[in-house]
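Example record

Each entry pairs one chain with its bound ligand, guanosine-5'-monophosphate.
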Amino acid sequence: MQRKGILIVVSGFSGAGKGTLMKKLVERYDNYALSVSMTTRSPRPGEKEGVSYFFVDKEEFERCIGQDGLIEYASYCGNYYGTPRPWVEQQLEAGRDVVLEIEIQGALKVKEKFPDALLLFVMTPTAQELKRRLEGRGTESHEVILGRLQRAVEESYGIEAYDYLVVNDDLDECLRQMNRIIDAARMRPSRNREFIEQFRTELNEILKGEN
Ligand code: 5GP
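Structure tokens for the complex follow.
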């Protein structure tokens, strides 16, 4: 039975390791397609156009908003970030599970538009560990790190809107856990309406044949 893909939204504090988790998830399991966002922020060393992000200027981003070319978008630490619509819709139609790695305002907009989306929130085991990982990354200034910790405080008040928490302590265990959650979500009755309908029809036919 061909089913539509699941839209999986992954958020988490900056520094919680979402990027690495997503990369490994796509490498290790077959059915995931990772959406590439559009942003107005500058590339970090090593980031590639069209792989890490589509890097655009503010004018181009706003043009895309105007053309309804984004599923959602948000402003984060002074820059725009958004999810390009056509690619995501194509993948879902083709039955692939699409992962959006986006922040909380965007996640909530996705939930509004796609009530069946699965929302996961990635955390570190402790707040100290989050600070340590942000500092260890070595790519951002002290001010930027402080801004991200401040943002983490704000985001922490939105966690309850998500479907599941994932604690990224051991990377492999975290991946297994995410995959189990997504597998379980595939079995929700709301995602298997056709299967249920078909089963009902068949049951009724069996009964008719018996009488
Ligand atoms: P970074 O600058 O560290 O790559 O990303 C900053 C934040 O923006 C992260 O929390 C990331 O998940 C989020 N983000 C990345 N792409 C999108 C997007 O398309 N939409 C939204 N709403 N947030 C995004």
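Residues 14, 37, 41, 72-74, 76, 81-83, 101-103, 105-106 surround guanosine-5'-monophosphate (CB under 6 Å).
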